[in-house]
Structures are given as structure tokens and as C-alpha cells.
């Protein structure tokens, strides 16, 4: 009777806490450039064609940059600056080596933090 109801209520409450905790845990979006935030909103609302599976922040050539990792196949993994200008693609594409404009990215870029990652459903 009553203990069954209490257990169910507690389980639901814990799931809600975990759900909200995961949302807030991604990153504080406030410190991100507005164009990156717009991309994340487009991904979350499924309004982006070919959404990335991850967005990571890096320090590269003294600048704050964001690597968008493609979800599959022959797509480039693109590095954007804080104004969402495409800088280069260090990897991906048909041969996997990117566009060869930033061949030193994998060795010189410093990973700062994961900004967004696709959740496995």
C-alpha cells in the first residue's frame, strides 16, 4: 500500500534529479560564444542538418576554438573560432586526414573541456 507508493515517488524524484543534474552538468552555456550556443540549441531542437556528435573546446595557436566532431563517414571534423568562422578540419573527410590546413592540431591543440556530447538513446 503506502510503502509501495512512497518507493515509487522516491524513484520518480531521483530520476528527475538525475535528469536535471545531467542537463546542468553539460557546461554553463553562459560563457560560450552566442553562435556556439545557437548551434547547440539547433542540435537540441533537431533543426541542424548533419549535427555533430560532440563539441569540444580547445586552446589552439593562442586562441579559444571549438572542434565539432561529425557523426559519421566522410564528413570533416571542423574547428571554429569564437565567431564561428571555420578555421580548418584537422580530421575526417574521405581519407580521414581533414583538409590539411591545420596538420599540427592533434599535437599542439590543448583540450580544455567537452562542451556538448550526443546522448546515447
What does this structure look like?
- It is a single chain.
- Mean pLDDT is 82; it is low at 4-27.
- A five-stranded antiparallel β-sheet has the order 4-3-2-1-5.
- The radius of gyration is 19 Å and the shape is globular.
- Helices cover 32% and strands 28% of the residues.
- It has 121 residues and is α+β, with helices and mostly antiparallel strands.
- The protein has three helices and five strands.
End-to-end distance: 34 Å
Topology, number of strands:
5
Low-confidence stretches: 4-27
Sheet-strand content, in percent, reads 25-35%
- Widest beta sheet: strand line-up: 4-3-2-1-5
Bulk shape: globular
Number of helices: 3
Largest sheet: 5 strands, antiparallel
Classification by helices and strands:
alpha+beta
How would you summarize this macromolecular structure in one to three sentences?
With 121 residues, the chain is an alpha+beta fold.
Key phrases:
alpha+beta; 32% helix; five-stranded antiparallel β-sheet; 121 residues
Topology overview:
Layout: H1 2-25, H2 34-44, E1 54-60, E2 63-69, E3 76-80, E4 86-92, H3 105-108, E5 110-117
Antiparallel strand pairs: 1-2, 1-5, 2-3, 3-4
